[in-house]
Amino acid sequence: MTIRLSLFCFLFPQSHIIQAYNPPGKVYQQQYAKLWQLRLSEVNEGLKGAESAHIKGLQLFAEIYIRENSDIYEKKLPEFQAQIKILKADPSPFSQTAHAELTMMQAALRLKFNQYMKAGFDFWSGYRKAKSNFKDFPDYPPAKMMWGIIEAGLGSLPEHIQSYLSIIGFSGDVEVGLEMLHKALQTTKTGEWNYAYPLMGLAYVSAKVQLDNDQNISLKSIGLNPSQSPILTAIEAKILFDRSQAEAAYNLLENRKGHPNEIPFPYLFYLQGRMGVTLQNPKGNKMLELYLLANEGQLFIKSSHRYLWWHYHLKGNDQKAEHHRKKILEEGTTETGPDQLAQYEANKRLNKHLLIARLTFDRGEFRKCLSHLTAKKADEVCQSDEEKGEYYYRMGRCLQSLGNRNPAINRYKQSIEKYGDLETFERSNALLQMGLLQEKNGNCEDAISQFKAVTSFSGFPFSEGQHQKAKAGIRRCKKQK
Questions:
Q1: Residue 328 · residue 309 · CB < 8 Å
Q2: How far apart are CA 200 and CA 179, in angstroms?
Q3: Does the pLDDT of residue 59 top 60, yes or no?
Q4: Alpha-carbon gap, residue 24 to 11, rounded angstroms
Q5: Is the four-CA dihedral 395, 398, 401, 407 of positive or negative sign?
Q6: Which end of the chain has fewer CB atoms < 10 Å from its terminal CB, N or C?
């Protein structure tokens, strides 16, 4: 929830969406372009009033959120709150919608720095303000767009959370939100609002990937150049990597030329290091070590040590491998899925046969991965039912990627059987992938059954994302019935 809320707040600032009245001035647009490139020291020059307050708020949010430094947060928060007060005092639709957005951003910052009660209050306040804005300005596109984003975000939550939130007045609908994003995307494609197209493209692509399980869309596919912004670069690289295109993702990061005045964005080092280890690129471990040095916060620390653990294990350096395994248990937090997974795996033995299979698959070498797996039987390389579950799971992933649907389903069934009652990402994803395959085969009843089974599991890394994709599958299947 923390990551999604933060992305929604940062990626969808209201004045970057088509307004029915006057677009932001040229100076504002120039400052916004610099902000998008994280050239924070250059923004908010020559602006005044609501436009200045909005840009300043975005600037402060970006600095606090990216740096993840609690001292910076405490120092900058009063200035951020001052921008909210300026916007709150102006009754215009522009300012009132910006007021709601910065309030949501404040909730995201509270969550990042573990101020959960205050975050809940800010989110509730922002939600109510956005709802009243939509009621008061129903024909004002920024107010309508913000409400659409909230609709999509809340509608994507697991059913049990939605049921609880409905008691206190929260509700959402993914399809309504996606439709609003699509309309905004089309409106910004040309004309005087075209400067906002990268933002709307990122918003739409992110939502389609995360909330609708769209496996074909990307930033590049809608005409954007990911290299124009470090944020676009990070999102596109992550999309490529998740689709087993590790080399393309790594090259995107490696070849990007940043502006000399942009603030450091250590997350790019983490991504490149993770992908470099997958590719067994000699720069992989160096980028992870650079991330550990440059990062001011606690996120992805455990995950970085996890990939360094893998790197040195494969290199045969047992001393360094063990050093990083221990660091997983000693440093960082478990606020993110990758860090949770690292913590979980650090308490188990590292199965080299399965690790090689995982990395080979992530490189997109599906036949090679399958050959590696089947070179030895599960009983020969696995010491527990959990490892056997992973063995068959990875075999299913290979077969699925090679287009062998029914054999893949059979391997997923074997995987689930071996996992038993153990709730893991792999078990959940085996069910999800079975549902997707059954959907492609036209067996909607079976697909819905698998998707519903996914939503019955929780408490493992990435469970929220799995639930979102399963719910999207259920929606698609019900439309076909």
A1: yes
A2: 12
A3: yes
A4: 17
A5: negative
A6: C
In the block, residue with structure tokens 């129903």: 138
* Mean pLDDT score across all residues of the chain: 88
> Do residues 416 and 396 touch, judged by C-beta distance below 8 A?
no
458 Cβ contact partners less than 8 Å away, ≥ 6 residues apart? 158, 423, 467
| CB-based contact 351:317 (threshold 8 Å) | no
pLDDT at 367: 97
Q: What is the pLDDT of residues 65-120, one digit of tens each?
A: 999 999 999 999 999 999 999 999 999 888 998 899 999 999 999 989 989 999 98
Q: How confident is the model at residue 16 (pLDDT cuts 50, 70, 90)?
A: very low
Q: Can you give the three-state secondary structure of 97-159, one letter per residue?
A: HHHHHHHHHHHHHHHHCCCHHHHHHHHHHHHHHHHHHHHHCCCCHHHHHHHHHHHHHHHCCCH
Considering only residues 458 and 323, tell me which one the structure prediction assigns the higher pLDDT.
323
Q: Which residue type occupies 316? A: G
If you count them, how many residues does the chain have?
481
168-208 pLDDT, tens digit each: 566 667 777 788 778 877 877 887 777 778 878 888 898 88
pTM, 2 dp: 0.88
Task: Give the C-alpha separation, 254 to 410, whole Å.
Answer: 39
Q: Residue 196's pLDDT is what?
A: 77
The C-alpha torsion from 25 through 103 and 296 to 333, rounded to 10°, is -150
pLDDT at 164: 53
